[in-house]
User: Fold this.
Amino acid sequence: MPQIQIQGTSIVLIGNLNPAIFHPSWFAAHNLLRAEEADAAIINIVHPDVASFKTEWLEVNIVRERFQISTVQESYYEALRDIAVGILGLLSHTPIRLMGINRDFHFDLVSEDLWNELGHRLVPKQDWTPLLKSPGMQNLVVQGVRLDDLKGYLRVTVQPSARIKYGVFIEVNDHYILKTDEKEADGADKARLILSERWDESMKRGFDIAHAILKSGEKG
Amino acid sequence: MRSGVIKNDELEVSIFGPGYGEALALHLGFGKWILVDSCLEPKSGEPAQLQYLESLGIDVSSAVKLIVATHWHDDHVQGMGSLVRECKSAVVAVSAALKSQHFSALMNLYGEGVFPGSSGVTEFVNVFRILDERRTTGTRINVPKLASPDKLLYKDTIRLNRKDYEVEIHSLSPSDSAIMSANLDFRQRIPNAGTQKKRIICPSINNTSVVLWVRVGTHRILLGSDLQKTSDPKTGWTVIVNESQAIKEKASVYKVAHHGAESSYDPDIWSKLLFDEPFALLSPYMVADNYLPGEEDIKRLVSLTPHGYITAPPSRKKYKASDRVVRDTVEAVTKSIQSVNIGWGQIRLRRNIENSLDYQVELFGDAYNIVVN
Amino acid sequence: MSIEGQSQVDSENVVKDPDVTSSHAEDVDRRFQKDTLLTGTNAAGYDVTELRKQNGSTEGAQLQLGELLLSPPKMPPFKEYFKAIQKWEGKVISLSGDTFKVTLLPLVGDKIVQEAEIYVEDVTPDERSFIEPGAVFYWSIGYLERPSGRRRESVIRFRRLPTWTSYEVKTKKGRDLTSYFDE
Assistant:
C-alpha cells in the first residue's frame, strides 16, 4: 500500500468576516494560541480586507468572504479544529454559510508502472487515445452526495503529485452547506457543532476515501 | 460473537462491559427489549447493545420499548445518543434529578459544540436534541419519563399458553433528598465568566442514579446502577430498602451496584431484596486510582453468592506499544502507563418465563465467574 | 514528473470562485503550483469549500484582492511535516508533584483506554498552568520530517478554548430544557 509522504488539513469558512481582528495577538488574547506562538508568528498582512500569517504549525488566511486555517502537522489537527471551534464560539453572530473540512495527501507510489496504472484506472485511456497523443491524467475531480443528514457534498480531487516523483495528490473536500436561505440562523453555531461532533468522522472519511482510491489502482 | 435467537417466552438479562463503561439489554418476552445505559464496544466504537441486538437479527427501531439512562456519568452514557436515534419506538427515562434548571444550564453550557468530543453531558444534549426533533410529530412516546421512587416506567402483559404474565419496570430512586442534593451539585458546577473551559469531572457521590426493579411474571431483577450507601438515611440504598413500595418480593438477579464497590454494599440489599445466592452481575471500573471491584470486594461477593459474574477482569495491564518509537517515547515521558479496558465481555442470562428452571448463564469474550476464578 | 519548486500563479488562468471552500481552480496547468484564495463570483455557480492544494499542501497562499496580488514571503520548497505514529486525546485526572495522572483515549487504532502518569517537565512551561483536573490535551508521537533530516517527536499540547464569556454564561442559562418533561 502506498505510503503517505505529506498530508495536511484545512478548515474553510465562507461568510462575512472582518479580517482586521485576526491578528496573532488576538488569537493569544483569547487563548487560541500560546503567547509565544503569537509573538513568533510571521505576519504577511493584517488589514481590513485581508489577514494572513503563519506560525510554526498554523497558517491563517482570511479575506472578507473566506476564512481559512490549515496545518501540515498531524499532531495539530485537533488543535486546528479547536481554533475554529473557539473562533466560532467567540464570533457566534458572524454570518457563516458554508464550511469545508479538507484533507489532502501526497502518496508515494514508488514505481512509474503503479503510477501510470492508477491514472489509467481512474481515467481509462482508450477513449482518449484516438483524440490525443499520449494522454495522461492531470486532474480528476469527482463529487458525490453526502450520506449523512447534512447538506453539502463530498468532492475528491486526484492529481499527479508535484512534490513526489511517481506520487499522487488526493484532496477530499468535506463540504457543508450551513445556511440556504436568509431566514435560517447564521451558520456559526452549526459549523461549531459539526466541528465538535463530526470531526473524527470527517477525518476518517477523508483518509478512507484517499486510501480506497489507491487500492482501486492496485494490481489485482 | 453471540448467536442464539431469543424465543418469545424467554426472559434475558445481558450486561456488557469493558473497563470503562457498562450497559444492559433485557428481553421481556415477545420481542420486546429494554436497554439500560450505554457503552461502546472498544474495537468498533459502536454502542454495544445495538451491535448485539443487530447480531440477533432484531429491528431495534421497533423492538426496543424503553431506554433508561440511569445517570449522567461518562461511563454509563457513551453512545446514548445513537441508541435513542436508532431505537425510534423507545421511551426514554432519565433520573428525575435531571429535571433541574441547573442541569439544564450545564447542558446548554457544555453541550452544542462547546467541547469537541463526547462526554456524559454532551450525550444528554444529543438525546434531547433528538427528542426535540421528534417532538414536532406530536407523538406521545417521545416525551421522556422521569425516574423517581416507585415510579412505573413500563408496563405490559404477555400471554403464554393462555396465561397472562405481568411485566413491570419501576424505578426505585433517586429520592427527593438525593434530587435536592444533586441540584446543589449542578449549581456549583456552573462556570463563572473568565474561567477556563474544561470538562466536567463526575462527582464521586452519585445521587442521581436510577435503580430499577424489573418484574416479569414471577421473576424479579434488581438493577443497582451506581447507587451508593450514604450516611443520610433519606438517600442511597437505605431509603430504598426501608421505604420502597414497589418491592413486594425478592429478586433472583442483581446487577451489582457501582461495580461491586464497598461504598455501595448494604447488607440489607442482600438480606431483604434478594433471594439467597442470587445471580450477581457486574462490570469493572478502572479510572485513575479507582479500581473496582477490588480484592476485598470480590471476596465479599464470593461470600454472598456462588453465581457472581463479571464482564472483564478488573485489572490493568502494562501498556506495551507495538511500535518501537512509541514504546521508547512513552517510556521516557511517563512514570507509568497501563491499558485500562483491556477486556470486553458479555454475560447473558436466559430463562423460560413460565417454568421454574433456573437461568442459563452464557459468558462471552472476557466474562467469567468470579467464584471459579 | 519530478518534485518542483514554487512558481508564480498566472492569475489569468485562475477561475475566480467564491463559494468554494476548496480553491476550485479549473486551471490544470501544472505550472499552477500555489494555493489561491479565490474571491469573486464563480462563473459556473458552484459552491466549493476546498482549499485547493494543488501540488502542495500549504505552501503559502497568494491573495488576489482586486488588482492587487499579494504574494507571501519566499518560502523554502520543503517544509516540516509531522507524521504521527500514535495520537491520544488525554484528560487530566489529578496533579501531584512532578507528575500528573491522565486517561488517554487513542485517536489511532483500537480505542483501548490507557492511564498514565506523565512528567510535568514534558509539558512546555507556559502550558503547565493548564494541568488541572478536567483539562484535555493531545499527545502525538511520530516523526518530524525536515530538510535537515528526520527527527523523532513527542508533542503534548493542551486544548485551548476561549474562557467562558459573560455572554455565554448568561444567555445559555436562559434556555430551559426542563420543558421537555411534561411531569
Notes: The longest strand of chain B covers residues 151-160. Chain B is about 25% helix and 30% strand. Chain B touches chain C through 61 residues (CB under 8 Å).
